[in-house]
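Kindly go through the entry underneath: sequence plus fold tokens. Please state briefly how this chain folds according to its tokens.
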Amino acid sequence: MQKFEHGGDLKKIMAQENLDKIIDFSANINPYGLSKNIKKAIVDHIDDIIHYPEPDARELCGKIAENYGISADKIIVGNGAVELLYILCHILKPKNALIVSPGFSEYERAAKASGANINYVMLSEKQEFNSPMRDLIVNIKGNDILFIGNPNNPTGTLFTVEDMELLIEHAENNGCFVVVDESFMDFIKTSEAFSVLPLVEKYHNLFVLHSLTKFYALPGLRLGFAATDHEVLDPLYQAKDPWNVNALAQIAGMVALEDKVYQRRSRTYTRTEINYLYEELETFDKLKVYEPTVNFILVNIEKTKMTANELKAKLLSYGIAIRNCENYPGLNEYFVRFAVRTREENDELIDALTEILA
């Protein structure tokens, strides 16, 4: 399979399998769905597409700063968080990149696009992928840039802000730049115990990446931001398209960050469904289920005697798409990932697995 394949490619799956509809457990999107306020704002502002969007999304930067408690002059907004990864690597041109793995494949792809050599430090499966921070720190020397997801995709590994600061400080002392991907942090009610966003005011080697499309269910619109020091931020602005974020994405971001009711209900609903799906999956003796921290669950299916690709094919016959995780460095052909969906959809997955694994 393609090394950089992602979930969520529904048109391709439906065409290949001749399906009219599909339940998508392959992409980790807020199961609470699109905010009615965002949908209304997009419809109300549809005529704005005859005008250029605000360059550099200045108003949205201010709203992000207000919402996350950081300075607006340390923020850059992107056409999805991934765009900013590529621009960053283009600017820094690292020679050696260290990736905490298993991890999001675009870290490697962006680093390779800038000519970097790729090194991995593996989260230990024997430790439920919750490796001590010291096991990561000892690998920093000799690398120019480090990529780490917190919470990490696909393992769900979550480090405290204290552990993360140890990593960042050690990296700074060794001349290593640190990219912390917090794309799933909004799902965590107690995010202040884990987010390193406030540390951009303290460290010059820190780049915090944040998606706004996963929590606000906007993956088709593309919207994300990053926070970092001026030494990196200024070249980033010079390297990107000034209109890289379209007008509808900008208005959606403004409305999303103001919708506190949606934020609160999303966290409550999602946490309920995370717990429910985890407990249901735990009832299958043939599944090794890793405890989730956010809206996806990693599972080892080796005891089923099926590969991830075989289970994926069987579930597609039920109209269910899942993520085959064999292309993640550090995982093999027996790992899959289930996104957390609505209660009805989660039950459909459990029913299908019950029949398949009987």
